[in-house]
Specification:
Length: 123
């Protein structure tokens, strides 16, 4: 266990890097919302879980990039080959926000549609 403790910061940074790698490609889709970034994230976390259509339920969490300005919403069990299956980036802009869906891995169309439905419910 003592040998693993020094690796924890590296593992945490590696997780963030894999998310940034997914976002380095063009988003699959962008949506404009009249909600602030904070309000959009508050809506997205439960909405994505509710709309997610797969064999097992999925939980989502928000990762803060810049408090009140930018977040990534990702699945808690959503890593394949070191990348999140989906990342929804939320950026505040003026009085609203932009929600961008990034796809990290090829997924079934039904799952992609469920992610899209979860985002659209929060516009």
């Amino acid at each position: 266990m003592k040998r693993l403790i020094p690796l924890i910061p590296i593992l945490i940074v590696a997780g963030c890097q894999s998310d940034a790698t997914v976002r380095s490609n063009a988003p699959m889709e962008n949506f404009k919302s009249s909600k602030s970034a904070d309000a959009a994230v508050t809506c997205l976390v439960p909405s994505l879980a509710q709309h997610y259509k797969a064999v097992s339920p999925q939980r989502f969490v928000a990762q803060t990039i810049a408090p009140g300005k930018e977040y990534d919403v990702v699945p808690t069990d959503g890593m394949i080959n070191g990348y999140y299956t989906y990342t929804i980036n939320v950026k505040g802009n003026g009085s609203g926000s932009t929600l961008s869906i990034y796809k990290g891995q090829s997924m079934l169309p039904s799952i992609t549609e469920s992610i899209r439905a979860g985002v659209q419910a929060c516009l």
